Give the backbone structure.
Amino acid sequence: MWHPSSDIFTPAIPIGEKILRPVIVYVFLVLFLRIFGKRELAQLNPFDLVVLLCLSNTVQNAIIGPDNSVTGGLTGAFTLMAVNYLVVRFLFRHRRLDQILEGAPTVLIEHGKIRRQGLAKELLSESELRAVLHRQGFSHPEEIDRCVLEPGGSFSIEARQPPTPERRHRELIERLDRLAAELAALRAGSR
């Protein structure tokens, strides 16, 4: 219960420590997410979700320390956002370093064939890959020309040919155009 004599705005630890703690945790998490791969960013299975939820709870105390003040919490949050902004801005200007830190894209499907070494590198099962394909509207890997897991954890998927509904729609439009041309030619010939 809040008491008027308690000061919810006075941090329990020095402001310098309050700033240093989130910086250390941020660097640690970025390095470990890089080491453990893009999979954690790409697709969360129930186990990955549990790990990320526990991780956020685990590092909370490392960020705020023994401080439960509003000012301390806001300082920690601001520091995290500021460090992230500065890192992203720095990496934007230093593309080579960004590529080294983020890693390279991993090809998972090429010309309709699943590349097992890519799946193994990213610790993705074939069923997880198929689930990604299904969410994007594909039934089989053979429909894919190229599927790449990007460094940021997103999937880039290029179809081998337009999906069936698009192909049928295009064929129908072409037939209608031919019919319209034939009708125009018949009308012009009857005059």
Remarks:
- The first strand starts at residue 106 and ends at 110.
